[in-house]
Design brief:
The structure holds two protein chains of two kinds. By secondary structure, chain A is of the alpha+beta class. Helix content of chain A is 52%, strand content 18%. Chain A contains twelve helices and twelve strands. The two termini of chain B are 20 Å apart. By secondary structure, chain B is an alpha/beta fold. Chain B has a six-stranded mixed sheet with strand order 6-7-8-3-9-10. In chain B, strands 2-1-4-5 form a four-stranded antiparallel sheet, with helices on one face. In chain B, helix 3 crosses helix 4, helix 3 packs parallel to helix 5 and helix 5 packs parallel to helix 6. Classes of the chains: A alpha+beta, B alpha/beta. At the A-B interface, helix 1 and helix 10 of A face helix 1, helix 2 and helix 3 of B.
Chain lengths: 400, 236
């Protein structure tokens, strides 16, 4: 038996190809949306991977440092180093900032890190160019997606930093490039006031009788000095000795240091369930809407194509064609349209993904799932046309 | 009749029930021998199309008896289970417009019926080509229907109607869209094919040009047929 669907498609190939291209662009958008979600998840995981930490120690009763603010004294890490199972502990600060570059700002996550061996927690793990930070001030390592160049001077608040190294895939959970700077600079940048604000603050302190007591001349100077420095960090990243159970060490820190501690699994859960959850649900809703729109378009196209063949279908039924042959013809056309659309969509998505400003990750398994989803949608979308075709009375082929 | 052709006795068709019941066919008697071409004529609303649909097994008669070839197919109810197979294997159709499948070439339009009956593609196409040759249109075997003239399309439609060698062909106004010359050519072909393949052909027509060509004519009026001897000119 010849393929009626195949012959019809070959006969009207232009109509099918152009309709398939239109559908394919829609499928391309759908695949890209799935890729954007995957990219967000990957960004979050990469951010956690890049810290090199096994535990995140943060302020008690907070879910910092990514989901909410957290402040810890910057000398706490020393006491953690004495805890059993802890190999390394390092302070870290995270600041979402606009980093000035070449006359415009780049939205970045500025990470304050302590000097240490490459590979210790907080340090950028792999550089693609340049070197790690070796000085205590005004050096930066930036993610390559920031557009910064080696040797370039970038502005963070009032200070200029020299880019000494470039890293790749060191991004925040929302895809912003990370810029690593020395911890002290980051602490300063976090609460750096302008000159007018400093004068105002000193005037207020001088007029405050609690700070400017007669007979204690150094008190005011001490208060001013304490307000000009920042002794806080957002989190302490802890690397454990091999063979240590993270939850055991975490429990000990919670109990004896009275701090909040998260393991890698818990931190990942906070990012997925709290930080990117709304964006993920938004994308999921988009995917559902796009799937419905695709189904509606396929259904409409197949319905219209079938409507144009009513007389032929009546003749086919009159000359003895089985209902299942006619149904198969319509469904095969719908599936063929879906396959053309998927191929076009996959190709276009692959080509346009690199120009997206955020990381888009097209997973092969998503494509496979997408392919079967397209086939399912096309099969379901053909049902309306099949119902109409099966209702066609073969007597319509006979006049009168 | 010798058990061949088609034989109809007291065929009735009622639409509606009770007070609203209308009899479109009130007891049609008709018989057409193998190799014979008869005309079925009548005014609009006389029941021609209803009779054709009953004969074509696309609507259910209310009562009566129909014998097709050697087989009683209706006797106050259908006696065959699969009407679709009956239409495919035992009844050929030729329509007012050819209604060829536009996405199949001429050969496959004709070969489709045997293919639907389960005959392998190659064999089905060979049967189709044989008929196309008999109808002198084999040179257009690979052409698409849209490339054919009206007369050529109607010849392909006749080939499609004949390809499964049905005992009866129902032709519904087969010459309506054609000019006199082509209309007469179609009738000539139908007569020739009827004799060659021992097929009974019923031609429903309004076409004054072709009515004189029938040896026998059935007039249908108010759901009842009356047989009449026609002039039968031209095709002996």
């Amino acid at each position: 038996m010849i393929s009626l669907a195949g012959r019809d498609i070959l006969h009207a190939w232009g109509k099918f190809v152009f309709t398939g291209i239109g559908l394919g662009l829609l499928i391309g958008v759908t695949l890209s949306m799935a890729g954007i979600y995957r990219g967000m998840v990957d960004d979050a995981q990469v951010m956690l991977d890049n810290t090199g930490a096994d535990l995140w120690v943060v302020q008690q009763d907070t879910q910092g440092p990514y989901a909410e603010s957290s402040s810890l004294y910057d000398d706490l890490y020393r006491s953690l180093l004495d805890m059993p199972g802890v190999e390394y502990a390092a302070n870290v600060t995270y600041l979402i900032m606009q980093v000035g570059h070449d006359g415009h700002d780049v939205s970045s996550m500025v990470v304050g890190i302590t000097a240490g061996e490459p590979g210790t927690p907080g340090q950028p793990r792999h550089l693609v160019a340049g070197r790690h930070i070796t000085r205590s001030h005004y050096e930066a390592v930036a993610d390559i997606s920031s557009g910064f160049q080696l040797g370039e001077r970038i502005r963070i608040r009032r200070n200029l930093y020299t880019v000494v190294g470039l890293s790749r895939r060191t991004v925040s959970y929302n895809g912003d490039p990370m810029v690593f700077i020395p911890l002290k600079d980051a602490q300063e940048a976090q609460f750096l006031k302008d000159n007018d604000a400093l004068i105002q603050q000193r005037r207020r302190n001088a007029e405050n009788p609690a700070f400017n007591r007669p007979g204690i001349p150094d008190l005011l100077a001490a208060v001013n000095a304490s307000q000009s420095t920042n002794a806080y960090v957002n989190a302490i990243l802890v690397k454990l000795k091999p063979g240590t159970f993270p939850e055991d060490v975490a429990e000990a820190i919670r109990r004896w240091k009275r701090l909040q501690v998260y393991t890698r699994t818990q931190m990942e859960s906070i990012l997925m369930d709290k930080v990117i959850d709304k964006s993920a649900r938004q994308i999921a809703l988009f995917l559902v809407i796009l799937s419905i729109v695709s189904a509606a378009i396929v259904a409409f196209i197949i319905y219209t194509l079938t409507l144009g063949k009513i007389r032929e279908i009546a003749v086919l039924k009159l000359i003895g064609t089985k209902n299942r042959t006619i149904a198969a013809m319509i469904m095969q056309q719908s599936l063929a349209l879906g396959i053309i659309g998927f191929v076009v969509g996959k190709i276009t998505a692959t080509f346009w993904v690199p120009i997206f400003p955020k990381y888009v990750l097209l997973m092969p398994l998503d494509s496979v799932a997408g392919f079967f989803a397209v086939l399912l949608i096309c099969a379901l979308a053909s049902v309306i046309a099949i119902r109409m075709a099966l209702k066609v009375d073969p007597a319509e082929a006979i006049g009168g | 009749m010798g058990g061949k052709g088609i034989h109809i006795e007291g065929l009735k068709k009622r639409y509606g029930e009770g007070d609203t019941a209308v009899y479109a066919l009130k007891g049609v008697d008709m018989q057409v021998a193998p190799g014979e071409v008869v005309g079925l004529i009548g005014p609009s609303g006389s029941g021609k199309s209803t009779l054709l649909k009953c004969l074509g097994a696309v609507i259910d008669p209310t009562a009566g008896r129909m014998i097709l070839g050697d087989e009683v197919i209706f006797d106050d109810g259908w006696k065959v289970r699969d009407l679709r197979a009956l239409r495919r294997d035992k009844i050929g159709f030729v329509f007012q417009a050819p209604y060829l499948i536009p996405f199949l070439d001429v050969t496959d339009n004709v070969a489709l019926l045997p293919m639907l009956a389960g005959i392998p593609n190659g064999e089905a196409r060979a049967k189709a080509l044989e008929l196309l040759t008999a109808l002198d249109i084999q040179h257009r075997a690979r052409a698409m229907p849209s490339k054919l003239s009206g007369g050529e399309q109607q010849r392909v439609a006749i080939a499609r109607g004949l390809v499964n060698r049905p005992p009866v062909i129902l032709a519904d106004e087969p010459t309506a869209p054609l000019d006199s010359e082509r209309a007469m050519a179609v009738i000539r072909i139908l007569n020739h094919m009827a004799r060659q393949f021992e097929t009974a052909i019923i031609v429903v027509t309004h076409d004054e040009k072709i009515i004189p060509t029938f040896k026998r004519i059935y007039h249908i009026r108010d759901g009842v047929t009356h047989e009449e001897v026609g002039e039968g000119r031209g095709f002996e």
